Amino acid sequence: MKKLSISWKLSVITISAFTLGFLIIALFNIWDLRMAKKKGLEEEALVMSRHLRGVIDNNLSDLPLDGFSGMSSYLQSLVDPNPHFSYCFISDKDKNILYQYKKDETLNLASFFDNEQLSTDEKGYEFVPVGTFYDMVIPILWESKAIGYIHIGGPRELIDSLVHKAVISNVIVGILVFTASLV
């Protein structure tokens, strides 16, 4: 068997180290991008849900939770102009949907009830993946008791498509740099 020259061995080691380093950096950047976008969606949903809870709190002294008029239209005015969100609904503590708006009429909102009890912890909300959505759940409190819940959700595909684009661009850049290093 023919021995490889030192320059060939150094080239293989250099290219291997460069490729490994590039992959580690690309994976870290993609993970960081996913976490940053998810955190941004979470913060946006939290701001919207706290605003909505403030509107509800202001009216609870005069009306019961199920006595608000025009609430579904108000939910529509919050969700429709925002491309990050697909639905918003308000339920009572017995899991009855009182008010709702959803961009996709076929969406089954009953599948989002499982995380309501988690939202009453010290954080005061829960933001979890449910099926193809991220669901923000925030309790509506009256006299220190949860009397209902606000749900706001956005499709996970928004973040997934952004990450997919980042993966593709990283692969293209990696191939170009790798090819250029061979020349």
Structural key phrases:
21% strand; alpha+beta; 3 helices; five-stranded antiparallel beta sheet; 183 residues
Overall geometry comes to elongated
Radius of gyration: 24 Å
In whole angstroms, the N-to-C terminal distance is: 26 Å
What is the mean predicted local confidence, pLDDT?
85
Please give a structural write-up.
- The protein has 183 residues and is an alpha+beta fold.
- Helices cover 49% and strands 21% of the residues.
- It is built from three helices and five strands.
- A hairpin with a 2-residue loop joins strand 4 and strand 5.
- The protein starts with 5 loop residues before the first helix and ends with a helix.
What's the quick description here?
This protein is of the alpha+beta class.
Q: Can you lay out the helices and strands and say which pair or pack?
A:
Elements: H1 6-60, H2 71-79, E1 87-92, E2 97-102, E3 126-130, E4 133-142, E5 145-155, H3 157-182
Antiparallel strand pairs: 1-2, 1-5, 3-4, 4-5
Helix pairs in contact: 1-3
